[in-house]
Amino acid sequence: MKKESTWLKLPLELLQHKQTSLSTKIIYTYMLWRYQFFSVKGSKYFEAQDTIATMCNVSRKTVN
Questions:
Q1: Residue 11: how many other CB atoms lie within 10 Å
Q2: For residue 13, which of 24, 27, 29, 50 sits 20 to 30 Å off, Cα-Cα?
Q3: Does the pLDDT at position 26 exceed 80?
Q4: Summary mean pLDDT of the chain
Q5: What's the CA gap between 8 and 36, in Å, rounded?
């Protein structure tokens, strides 16, 4: 069985904004992916900061 790939559309401004840290860009991308995942299922997206930190390999303080 062939697995379908998933794509996200990111705002070009986010990628080009030099003052935005790489951690922030990673967190934004992860949260966008999760938001879209739950939206397709008709659910609202809510996830603990600790979970986001673990998944993005950053500290909870960075997520906050």
A1: 10
A2: 50
A3: yes
A4: 90
A5: 9
SS3 11: coil
**Upper half-sphere CA count for residue 24 (Cβ side, 13 Å):** 8
- Compute the distance between CA of residue 7 and CA of residue 4 in angstroms, rounded to an integer: 10
Q: Which residue has the tokens 């609202």?
A: 44
Supply the DSSP symbol for 56. H
Q: Which has the closest alpha carbon to 22: 56, 64, 50, 51?
A: 56
For 5-30, what is the mean pLDDT?
Answer: 90
The CA-atom distances, in angstroms, between 42 and each of 6, 30, 37, 38, 45 are 18, 19, 9, 6, 10
The one-letter code for the residue type at 20 is T
